[in-house]
Amino acid sequence: MSTIQKHVLKFSDNRLKKSNELLQGMKLLKLYGWEEIFCSAIEQVRKREVKKMLKLGGFLIATNFITQATPVTVTLISFAVYSLVSPLPLTPELAFSSLALFQQLIIPLYLLPMTIAFTVNAIVSVGRLQKFFVAPEIEENHDGRDVLCSAEQQFRDEYDDDEDDDFVDSKEDAKVQKKPFKYEKVTLVPADDEDDDKLLTGGRTSKEAYGTFDQETSLGDFERANTLSDNVALMIKNGSYSWDVDNPVAAISDINLTIPAEKLTLIVGLVGSGKSSVLSAMLGEMTTLSGSILFNKKKNKVAYASQKAWLQNATLKDNILFGEPFNKKRYNKVIEACALQPDIDILPGGDKTEIGEKGINLSGGQKQRVSLARCMYGQTDIVILDDPLAALDVHVGRHVIHEGILGFVMKENRTVILVSHQLQYLQYANQIIVMDGGKIYRQGSLDEIANHDPELYGNWKETIVLQTESEKESETEEELTIIERKELIKQVSMISEEGKKQEKVGTTLIEEEERERGSVSWKIYLAYAKAIKLPIVFTIITLWASQTTALTLTNFWLSAWSESGANVTINGTVQNDSDDLGYWIGGYTGLTIAYIILGVLGNSSQIISALLAAKRIHISLLRSIIDAPMRFFDTTPVGRILNRFSNDTMIIDQKIWQTVNGLLITIFQIAAAVIVNSLVIPIFIAFVVPVLVIYYFIQSYFITTSRELQRLDSITKSPVFAHFSETLGGLSTIRAYRDERRFRRVLIERIDTNNIVFLFLLSVNRWLAVRLDLVGAFIVLVSGLGTLIASILGGLQPSLVGLALSYSLQIAGYLNWLIRQVADCEMQMNAVERVKHYTHTPSEPYRGNQKPPLAWPDSGDVRFNDVSVRYAAELEPVLRDITVHFKAGEKIGICGRTGSGKSSLTLALFRLIDTYKGSIVIDGIDISQVPLLTLRNRIAIIPQDPVLFSGTIRFNLDPLEEKLDSQLWEALEIAQLKPTVSELDNQLDAEVAENGENFSVGQRQLFCLARAFLRNARILIMDEATASIDMQTDAILQTVVATSFNSVTVITVAHRVATIMDSDTILVLSDGKIVEYDTPANLLQDEDSIFSSLVKGMK
């Protein structure tokens, strides 16, 4: 059982991993029309998981058979042997006193299979957890910064300072006084506990040790080594670093650099050259193969903005403050420096608007500027920025550089390390580091590099002249910003009273988790019964009823048998009649065997049907989630959805059938006890009815409370999953800020909230037990007195007295067990209720009224006819009255300020958002009439946020396995990835890490370009597709697009105007409306045009 349980958990982990990946990349999957592929992959894993659970069910059937057969078999053998061996006959006093003892085995033996299952689960889970406890941790190099705080150290500090109640949320954390850290070795076990040390290090010696708390560097050695002068912020000496602990292949090597303090250092280089790796090495996120990193002891507080902006599920303001105290003057300066005020004005609740798990209600540029604002607001000494300008358009990017980095940050005498592909900003850098092939190719000031490498400088100069805008912003551009802000102010001022009410409601993007009230509806039970299949449900109930009947008949047979023995004794005859004895033993044996067979059939049918029902429910949930519109994922945290696939699915898989099994057995046993007592002494009904009324009120009171507690238990788990998932996504940022204490507090607070609910659940169970024991004792008293009086006064047979008393003794325990089972069943049905809630999620209109020809679209002609688009019916439109015609084979460039609706226009082509007015026609066919998957499979896109999935490179390029290797290599060559993939061990079959973490963001975008090429569509959409690519690669790709996609309609959304200068037509958007649409030449001739203002500085 343990081995099978390990397999079940392994498949469950794999399923959850794939489900998480599916949810994280849902937007991309819908754009590509790949939902079915990933759905099938999850269903295959689920199929194997259920297969293993069925095997486990076989063991449980065998265990249940043993536990149910044991009491009756022991009873049968005992009475048969006694009757055959003993000279005295079997009498009621012997039979029913023995039967009462034998029946004490029933409930313990019934609980045995569950106990075994729980024990096996516990053993397997502890083994799996141990792997995490002894896993490698990030290094602690004593580099001059505060040491990362372990959980044990944090709890020790807080408890020592009586800070037990200091688990506060992110809004209150700003008030927490953080204790300064000491540079000392922090261990998880006492220093003299060598055995435990070996356990934690996996048996490694100190020289082989790795992890945050394994380093042996002494404080004195460190202080002597850290002798950086005040004009040096940090230094790397002879550094070689790897991403993989187990595979020490250097990602970057021979790194020797000195970062000047209070200056701007710019790191440049081609895609995949190691720029981001250098930053990760500085932050201690890589494995050190050789060398060392030293920070200046006096100024070593770090702020970090990752290449892919990481935001919390909190308000925009809280994301910027990031636990720091609120300073209004500083906050306003940061908002201005990051050009966020116009964007805040758009948001319904201003800076108090809650943004989603990954800032999903913000555009890519807005997310990045919030991340930048977080860096600027924090009063740190060093600001590390990993290519934040890539996601910003030209105006905002220039504003952030001049007002934010060069203005606000540098004026505070802070050190800035900036990775960027935008070479026009080289002139502002005090030091430039050029990366190539994982090594430093050149470093120094711009003048020094110009002197040492005139060719490189010449290439830079040419690129700057040809492909970037000047840093000077023309007056017309200033007017554009003013116009846009006036329009935004006008939009806010025009909100009606009703709109204000909606605005107030709309400030929270993530809705509160749904919670049903009152008892679980009968519809939920019916839904579960339908999942099992109603005929099977009736069969199971019939089998359990028959089994209880067989047991009752067995006891009546025993009563008659013992009564015959009593009559023999009374008549003074003690001899055994072998024929008579054979009759009684044979009848008892037959009824016992019938009881056992019916029990096996009941258990088998229930376990198998329940697991198959769980499989059907999971498929229904998965299909509903996959078919849901994108707005559902914008407003529902991934952690909440994962809770359905993990905790709720686990309850449906493993717990409900056990509870229902126990419930049915208990109900029929109580019914049998009441019937037997009523048949023996009819007056019993008069006494038991009031008791049952009292019992009913107790159980009603208990179930109402426990039901709500169970719902709270389920609901309070979701924030734990959500926060943990969110924290994992931003670990490098959290560790860079040395903010792990605060995030650990929030996590512990949420776990405590869940634990408090669970503690109350246990407490109400104890409350119930005390009261039910009292009720049960009264029932025994009534039955016992009644039968005794009836026996004395009414001549009731002693055997029937014994039978009634034995059932009375059981009824107390069964009543207690019944209410627990009813409560547990209703609690666990809450999991079905929660899953069923998501199975009724509105789905996208996948079916179409018109099936287009196989070659459609054959030319790529696109028409927008008075199109207005919104993300949800209750929200304002993001595109208004768009009417435009893109001719077949035309190259269209779309530009506009961040948030102007550029990406929304492309999403409308995929019907990913609601086109509530007008129509979009491609090659004469209205896309609203086309089946959704057909539409999305016929259009290619290179998305704004590149996503790679775990699996092979081949799977990421061609998951349907329709292309030849030669076609895959051709696509990689076009995307400039052929050299990179060729160097990998397994090439096309090389593994891609989860989220593509083993490739840079730029490389991920290139993989998306290769996917688009393989699709061979007549329409290609490039949604800021070259944002994270260096200028040189970008120039090559523009040439590739012009040649490889020469007959394709290419719609390019760009923030770099240079990337769309060769387009046939330019579309300029502002506030969701078209403000300009013409050829680049005509727009440039009009000096007052917005597009002309964007390129006026080009030389």
TrEMBL record:
> Which residue range or ranges hold the ABC transmembrane type-1 domain?
1-121, 575-827
Is Transmembrane a UniProt keyword of this protein? yes
- Give the UniProt subcellular location, in the record's own words: Membrane
NADP among keywords: no
Q: Which residues form a coiled coil?
A: none
Keywords, sorted A to Z = ATP-binding, Membrane, Nucleotide-binding, Transmembrane, Transmembrane helix, Transport
Q: ABC transporter domain: which residues?
A: 234-462, 862-1096
* Transmembrane intervals: 56-85, 105-124, 525-545, 656-675, 681-698, 774-793, 800-819
What this protein is called in its record is: ATP-binding cassette sub-family C member 9-like
What organism is listed for this UniProt entry?
A: Saccoglossus kowalevskii (Acorn worm)
Task: Summarize which stretch of the complete protein this chain spans.
Answer: 307 to 1405 of 1405
